[in-house]
Design brief:
Elements: E1 4-10, H1 17-25, E2 33-39, H2 45-52, E3 59-65, H3 74-88, E4 94-97, H4 108-117, E5 122-129, H5 131-134, H6 139-162, E6 181-184, H7 185-190, H8 201-211, E7 216-226, H9 238-247, H10 260-277, H11 285-289, H12 293-300, H13 305-315, H14 329-351
Parallel strand pairs: 1-2, 1-4, 2-3, 5-7
Antiparallel strand pairs: 4-6, 5-6
Helix pairs in contact: 6-10, 6-14, 12-13
Amino acid sequence: MTKSIVAIPARDEADRIGACLTALNSQRLRPDAVVLLLNNCTDATETIARAMAPCLDFQLRIFTLDLPNGRANAGHARRLAMRHAAQCAGNDGILLTTDADSVAPPEWLARNLAALRNGADVVCGRAIIDPLEAKLIPAHLHEDDARECRLIAALDHLAFLLDPEPHDPLPRHTEASGASLAVTLQAFNNAGGIPDISSGEDRAFVRALWMMDARVRHDPTIQVTVSGRIAGRASGGMADAIRRRMVRQDAFTDDQVEPARHAFRRYALRCRARHAWAGTADSTLAGDLGLPWARLSTCLSHPTFGAAWAALETSSPALQRRGVRFIDLPAEIAIAEALLRQAAIPETLAAD
């Protein structure tokens, strides 16, 4: 029987860990075990968790570590937590991870398992800020976030129209958050586990899997609620961004955002590169990428398309990313939505 193991890194989460574990115990399909990795805690997180353990309907495995400076960070803690979870999972288990300040709805585990059964290798859920705590965040941050999300969604829709990935259909999202990830043990091992970096380990992990042509699913029905605190436990995380933007708006939006016309070109070129990697001749692709033919050939020789595309993004001047300033969001949204209408025309005509 396939085991499902949830990994949670935690640091000074005495106020939140009870709700997190209670939510996992209230799942319609409960996990077989939860690995709780306590990273340099100085509060009562461990005491609370151990007191709850006898009342839980899953095995709670607690690891208490005092990591040295330079290693006491969220990325390394999640890497260790997932490594312990993998050791508990058997030969063909399912690994999940969430955050210690999260609350998963009762269908969270079941929906993740269903997505994996439907063919995904890794499932990305969404992290939604607790509605009550969201009210404490200034309105201008919510407005900035809404515009940023609108552009991100439009660019992702363009990606789907120009270069669709059948395993990740619409509706979908673009998050890769450690608050809600599920992955098969095989895919986890193939990727070498969670990258050993201080922050951004969740995105880097999903990126590594995508480069291996793993089937990444961004399921919008899978969500967890997370805190909206501005005093975070992880440097470089959501809390840092909220606190910083409360004082002054960032000059640039999230690094996954780019000008709409550049995104349109990127995804059109990605589609052509995908076909070329699969063996379809494209005599103008090298020129359109600004690459010598020999360099294009070298990039396309990678054994997976994801790795080939990563090499092309590094090599091609046409694929170098440009950021989007917050003040330019309205104009970029208008361009992106116009391009969406343009890109959808052939699909509309085909349906008539």
